[in-house]
Amino acid sequence: MKRAFLLACQVLVTLLPWPLRRWCLQRFWGFRLDPGSRIGLSWIFPNHLTMGPGAAIGHLNVAVHLESITLDAHSYIGRGNWITGFPKGAPRHFTHQPDRDPSLHLGEHAAVTKNHHLDCTSRIEIGAFTTIAGYASQFLTHSIDVHECRQDSSPIVIGGHCFVGTNVVVLGGARLPDRSVLGAKALLNKAFEIPDQLYGGVPAKCLGPLTGARKYFTRSTGFVD
């Protein structure tokens, strides 16, 4: 009965006009929402939500079973994204990872465009001024450990001022260094350390340094004209 009541409250609040919805989310869910932040018609109910000035979440997003979502100032989640996690303290899976953090963090002016899947069973970190571009990319922090025959997870870290192309797959434990480009349809399955590089391929490898002016990496606002 309690679960059904909570679900009904979530449905009702999701349909409210934004000013009233923001008040309810802060008053009854304890979310920390800057007056300049905004959420569209989306199902966003982590345990903790923090949105800085100008941060925004568009329409038709779903975010469930996460410990926290943090959007720093002017960061943005577009529309139609599926953001999932796995609750801490669940009795069946990930008991060998007591410090697992099912959360999502976007740095200032970072952007996730639309129709992506972010599996935040472990933490996904997207650095400031980074764009997860295009469509249909998958960030998958968990899988089955075939050696131990159990579910396992590892965080994903995308550095600052990165550009991630369309339709990529990023696996748990992967890292994309600062000021890097990940080419379209790449498979990023390991941690790279050298910044200012082009990475691509299946699996991804370093294809060489980025040269030229590269104004994208020095811009002062996230939006690109």
Mean pLDDT: 95
Per DSSP, what share of the residues sits in E-state strands of 2 or more residues? Answer: 25-35%
Beta strands, count: 25
In N-to-C order, the SSE pattern is HHEEEEEEEEEEEEEEEEEEEEEEEEE
In the CATH hierarchy, the third-tier topology is known as UDP N-Acetylglucosamine Acyltransferase, domain 1
The CATH class assignment is Mainly Beta
In one word, what is the shape? globular
> Please, what is the CATH homologous superfamily?
Hexapeptide repeat proteins
Summarize the structure.
Helix content is 11%, strand content 32%. It has helices spanning 2-14, 18-28, and strands spanning 32-33, 38-39, 43-44, 48-51, 56-57, 62-64, 68-71, 76-77, 82-84, 103-106, 111-112, 117-119, 124-126, 131-132, 138-140, 142-145, 150-153, 156-158, 163-164, 169-171, 175-176, 181-182, 187-188, 197-200, 205-209. The strands form 4 sheets. The protein has a 9-stranded mixed beta sheet with strand order 2-5-8-11-14-19-22-24-25, with no helix packed on it. Strands 1-4-7-10-13-18-21 form a 7-stranded parallel beta sheet, with helices on one face. A 7-stranded parallel beta sheet has the order 3-6-9-12-15-20-23.
